[in-house]
Amino acid sequence: MNSPYGLEMVEDCVNCTLRRQNSFCSFSPGLQGQFDRLGHHSIFPSGALLFVEGQRPRGIYVVCSGHVKLSTTSASGRILILKVAGPGEVLGLSAILSGSVCELTAETARPCQVNFIERETLLDFLRRNGEAGLHSAKALSVEFQAAFRDVQDIIMARSSAGKLARLILSWSAGQEGKEVRIRSTFTHEEMAQMIGTSRETVTRLLSELKKKELIRLEGSTMVIRNRLALEALVA
Question: pLDDT for 72-81, tens place per residue?
């Protein structure tokens, strides 16, 4: 069933067709039914705040469909988007398990369906099921490794052009061909927040990439015309 936002709705976790093998919510059949009874599925429009940095967490959010921006804000008010979470990923887990406040702000990048599970309900589920505890440990490990790679990318890239090229290439992962088409709904401001620069810089760099015929823009679709040249900017 589709929602008013065009999302493919998940009616329950047991019969979910969107779940992938490595998703946080990919449990064995017996445990999947228990997990399904824990949460509450909700639809959020684009721009909705699930939780904010410094807030005491009420529970976790498992992304069923759509994407969620995870960001942090500096003392001067500068926003840095650290990650865009997609289907199957869990948000807020580290804060729940550590008993600390939320490290990041989670805002829907587009309409999303999420499964919310309250803190005490989740902790009881983890205490009673070793498999669920192992899933949680794996999810935290993947989250840490991804954060480490992202910090490396930001620090090691030699220029803003290299950071932008790396971001564009990450959107094309798994695609091959002479020209690769990417559909991106992110604004120049959001792209700037992902690579730690200004909106004006992103606009200028995209213009330069077009002039050099490395990319082509067709409305909201970006076409990579010269992957090797983009990879050279990253190196």
Answer: 988 888 888 9
Instruction: Give the global pTM.
Output: 0.81
Structure tokens at 174: 């798994």
Dihedral sign, CA of 18, 24, 30, 34?
Answer: negative
Mean pLDDT by 10 residues, the chain (235 residues): 69 75 81 90 94 95 92 86 89 94 94 94 94 89 79 69 89 79 87 90 95 90 91 85
Distance CA 225, CA 229 (A): 9
Question: Are 117 and 148 contained in the same domain?
Answer: yes
d(CA 16, CA 82): 28
Q: What's the CA gap between 233 and 15, in Å, rounded?
A: 44
Tell me, yes or no, whether 68 and 87 share the same domain: yes
Instruction: State the CATH number of the domain containing residue 103.
Output: 2.60.120.10
